[in-house]
Structure formats: C-alpha cells, structure tokens
Write a structure and sequence with these properties.
alpha+beta; six-stranded antiparallel beta sheet; 5 helices; 37% helix; globular
Length: 183
C-alpha cells in the first residue's frame, strides 16, 4: 500500500475519531449551576440532538458556550484561512474549538469547528460545490444522511471534511499535498 494512502487513511481515521468523540469540548460552562444551557451541552455530548427546531436552538446555545481556541502557527494556516470563510458561508458562524497540529511531523492540522446550527445531509453537496469552485478535486465523497465525509486534493494542502448531522461540529483535516507515484 503506498505511503500516501496509508497516511491519508490514518489521518482520516484520526479526524473522524477526533470529531465524533468531541475532543476539546467542555461538558458545561465554567461555574455551571445546572441551568438549561448547562444541560444542553450535556445533551449534545450524549448525541441526543435530532435535527428538530429545538435541537437547532440547543446547537445555537452550545455554540454560544463554546470558547474559541487560538490555532497554532502552522504551515496549514494559509489553507485554513481560505476554507474557514467557506464553512461560515455554508454553516453560519463557526468557532475552532480544538485542534491537533503537526501530526506525524508532516505539517498537517486537524481542527474541530463548532457550528451555530446542526449540519444537514445537503451540506455535503454545498461543501463539494464550493471546494470545486476553489480548484479542489474531489477524491472521495460519502453521505449516509447521518455522517458525511469528503476528501479534496489540491496543492499545497489536501482537505478532508467530516460531520455528523446530530452534532453541531465539523472536523477538518489539512494535510500536505502528496503526489502518489505512478506505476
């Protein structure tokens, strides 16, 4: 198996685990007192959001409680600054809630973004269209109406995006572009 494929599969696995486990999310606001905004965070943590209007209200409350983290100085930040406006256009406001930088020493960056609303299955089509307009080639796209994953390639960074329609979170992985050898 080519190194590129191994690296991509490993990175995608990390991204999915990172996003779906809620790494970096707080279970309640500091100084919580058990009020409804605290319980909405716990509800989201347990994956109980169901796409209803009240679930989107809860997603908005969770978003407001989320503290944005400062992303590290990374070679991937140029690509992140190009992709973040695309995410904001599709999902409304987004905040970087956690990250992992320089995975395996390759200059990659994984960011978990909190969204102000729940993602929908249709968002994958909007992401794909916007990424194509930015010059990215779609290398993989999968939508199960609950979980969606897409991989895009372009120089200098390839981008993998995933989300779950029951969580107001998007995972994005920025990997240095690698050309697989032609045999």
């Amino acid at each position: 198996m080519p190194k590129f494929l191994k690296f991509s599969l490993f990175g995608l696995s990390l991204l999915i685990i990172f996003t779906l486990t809620g790494c970096g999310q707080k279970s309640a606001a500091p100084g919580s007192s058990g009020n409804s905004s605290d319980s909405s965070r716990a509800t989201e943590q347990n994956g109980l959001l169901n796409g209803s209007a009240s679930a989107n209200n809860e997603a908005g409350q969770i978003f407001e409680q989320t503290v944005e983290v400062e992303l590290p100085d990374s070679p991937a930040m140029k690509t992140e600054s190009e992709i973040r406006p695309l995410l904001k256009k599709i999902f409304g406001d987004v905040k970087a809630e956690s990250y992992q930088a320089d995975i395996m020493g390759a200059g990659s960056l994984i960011v978990s973004y909190a969204t102000s609303r729940l993602p929908t299955p249709n968002d994958l089509g909007a992401i794909t269209k916007a990424m194509k307009e930015k010059g990215y080639k779609v290398t993989m796209e999968n939508n199960s109406n609950v979980q969606a994953v897409a991989m895009f390639t372009a120089k200098p960074y390839d981008v993998n995006i995933n989300f779950d329609t029951k969580h107001p979170t998007i995972g994005v992985q920025y990997n240095p572009h690698f050309e697989a050898p032609q045999y």
